[in-house]
Amino acid sequence: MKRGSFKKTILITGGAGFIGSHLVRHLVKRYPDYMIINLDKLTYAGNLSNLKDVEHCANYRFVRGDIVDQPFVSDLFDQIPLDGVIHLAAESHVDRSIVSPDDFIRTNITGTFNLLHAAKTHWHGTTGGKLFYHVSTDEVYGTLGPEGSFTEQSPYDPRSPYSASKASSDHLVRAYFHTYGLPVTLSNCSNNFGPFQFPEKLIPLVINNIRNMKPIPVYGKGENVRDWLYVEDHVAAIDLLFHQGRRGQTYNIGGGNEWRNIDLVRLICRLSDGILGRTPGSSEKLITFVTDRPGHDLRYAIDAGKLRKELGWSPAREFEKALDATIRWYLENDEWLNSVTSGEYQKYYTEQYSGLKKDSSGE
Length: 363
Ligand code: NAD
Ligand code: TYD
Hints:
three-stranded mixed sheet; binds nicotinamide-adenine-dinucleotide
């Protein structure tokens, strides 16, 4: 790669995943003078077909590798002089973290440490203009009651192996800022939705089950609340923060868009019936209340006031329109859905849901 021909070289970790692939596409197209390097292990959640439209771009390169592999990470920093890292690679699904937390500890904690260590070592003395941007989640703050929202000052109180491992990674990133002066910025975002999300997460799972006329599993009574943000709005915030966020600072990102799970699932059913031309109410019949997730956080809500005040960000998409477009995308891209739900997904789905009992208390 001819470094001289690009203004910046940026490493995106986890760029073949859901949010990462939207971010890579956005940066490759918006900044033709940046070289975007996508480092991804291609776990079950990583899929290069998410990036078909940019794979031949001159300012894009894919590197397959594992951030847990310390010598590999160090070699990569040796070989490619990087101006910035945007770190998204993670094990990201709460249910999987409950069943097998090991990979969450390795990737989310050790992997983040390896990247921080390599950045510190390789950027030593030359940190001007460089940035390690860490992408995190609102789940590190724990769970809310019916009132209030998470601010950047909310105490950390993670309650699942996923959120605990992300919280650990956030602490490490801040430690590298305070102890070694590594230039860092962090953001903690609420639940994302949009195309290319692996159908183990609520919204694509519900759409996939409606498509296949399969039961829609709703945990507990469906009363848990999440704050949903369209993925492109998250990507726009990351772009803004990467370029204008203050060093050493954390920014909350969220949609200001709270939904009880059951209400969201009913909305998806209604929109899907319309799109598929099914009798109104037919998808709702698939809703099945099942045993609750252990340690299920009741409510997340984000106060994104700091980002709004400092940089003028707010979500650009109207929620119902973005949800409708998302449902249409999954239904039109059945080849993508079929490919990611074959093989390993079937095994996961059977293991995750066959043991859950029907819970009639939510009906
Ligand atoms: P995802 O699971 O869709 O993608 C994760 C990507 O990381 C995959 O491409 C996977 O192959 C890669 N990866 C996993 N382990 C790796 C390793 N050891 N080495 C290299 N690559 C590895 O996740 P996502 O939903 O796109 O989330 C991306 C980031 O955003 C995560 O850090 C997550 O914690 C954070 N986040 C997600 C949400 C959300 O709603 N999805 C909300 C807030 C924050
Ligand atoms: P999920 O998409 O896994 O995101 P997170 O747990 O990180 O918020 O789940 C969103 C909400 O939907 C959460 O309250 C759990 C619930 N849920 C179900 O009720 N049924 C399901 O099959 C899944 C995957 C999630």
